[in-house]
Specification:
Helix content is 85%, strand content 0%. By secondary structure, the protein is an all-alpha fold. It has a domain at 98-156. The protein is elongated and about 155 Å long. The relative contact order is 0.02.
Amino acid sequence: MAVTANGSKTVSANGSRSVAERLTDFGRLVATLDRRMIQAFDTLDRLGESTAALDALADEGADLVTDLRARLDLWDVRLSADLDELKTALLAKLRELDVDAMTDRLTKLETSIENIETAVTRMDAVLEGSVEAAPNFITRRVKEATEDVMEELPGG
């Protein structure tokens, strides 16, 4: 194999290269491969560090979820107990009610409301009539006053 002026290597006519050249190329390939392997391991180390932080965060998150579930379960128990207590108290109060006495009171209340409604309807009719009569009343009073003034005036 011959080297040209620009530094490129030429292959012999039968396409073979010398053993030295082939070993040199193989050495370069191994060195390149070695550098790439080191870079790959460095990348794996950085990934390992990153995932370690994520693992710690995930562990803390799992602990947090466990704590929240325990608190929710405790609140659920407390809420159920409070609701049962309220239900018991409400049922006791309902048992104390005298429905027959309430029926009489409700009947009286209905009668009172009907009487108030009748009175309001009558008052509305009276006021409506007064409002309708007011313009005629005022006009008549003004005319009478004008006529009295006209009679008092000389020549009127």
